[in-house]
Design a protein that fits this description.
Elements lengths: L1 H24 L7 E7 L5 H13 L6 E7 L4 H14 L3 E4 L8 H9 L4 E5 L12 E4 L2 H15 L9 E7 L5 H16 L3 E8 L4 H12 L7 E4 L2 H13 L11 E6 L2 H8 L5 E4 L5 H12 L7 E3 L4 E2 L6 H6 L3
Helix pairs in contact: 5-6, 7-8
The protein binds beta-D-fucofuranose (GYE).
Amino acid sequence: MKRFFSLILCLALAVNIASCSGKKEQPKDKDLYVIGFSQVGSESDWRLANTKSMVDTFTEDKGYELRMENAKQRQDNQFAAVRTFILEGVDCIIIAPTVEEGWDTILKEIQDAGIPVIIMDRSVSVDDKNLYLTNYGSDFLEQGNMAVRWLESETSSMSAEDNLRILHLQGTYGATAQLLRTKALEVAVSQHDNWEFAAQLYGDFTEAKAYEVVTDYLRNDKDIDVIYSENDNMTYGAMRALEDAGITYGRNGQVRIISFDATKRALQYCLEGKIDLCVECNPLHGPGVEELITKYRNGEEIPKHVYVEETAFTYSDLTQDFIDSREY
Ligand code: GYE
């Protein structure tokens, strides 16, 4: 009897092992294309829309597994995430780099592991461009130039004796979005004798930081004509600081406001006359990046740099229906 039970036990175990190993032979994720994605953080509405676009695009239904790591705006967190992706042997790595510099070594490590890399949103500054497949994102210099052209046309009737005092809010130092939006403005200021910086303040792309620095600044100087804010969330912080200081802004106010990103809330403020210019920065990168990955997997040539289409909006370009229909 004892032997009979042992036999049954053995059979049961054997069936169990067989079914387990059967499962292992065809694991679902074997067929999935695994993407390791190092995202900058969750510092802004733009970033949340960007993350959503990636999550919505790279779904299991379409044959992907997206492993996303939030770097909380720190490059060393990105290095750690990338090294984990290498160990896991993912099929592709996507990096939205916090800053441009410092990527040579880690990109070399990925190359040595034979994993393709896509740089998304911002750029990296490396000597060897073969370290990544392609760079997909915005033309940040053109965004800055759109803002400058608008400001030139708005101030064209200004007398040469009047000075235009610009309060410049800067995003994360060293990020492409900061470097190039800053470059466009600095070049313009150097070319216009009567444009000057009231100050250049560090807002790190967040509302809280911008509120803090603008509040502080306005304690000693309220003589500003324009705020050039390198993203919408910093703009919201600046708007609150201006309100606290009793300074009016927008179309009928003392201070004109230029904001980058053109996310829904900013466009709404623009329609209400609180923001004068919204320069668009399109965060919906998922579909475009997927197209590049598909081409790569099919062995097709892909361009080294792909820019997304963008424009700029003033009050007169907007309607409520248009804003409601926007995805971000
Ligand atoms: O403008 C800002 C975000 O790199 C385009 O990063 C992105 C910028 C965007 O935090 O809101």
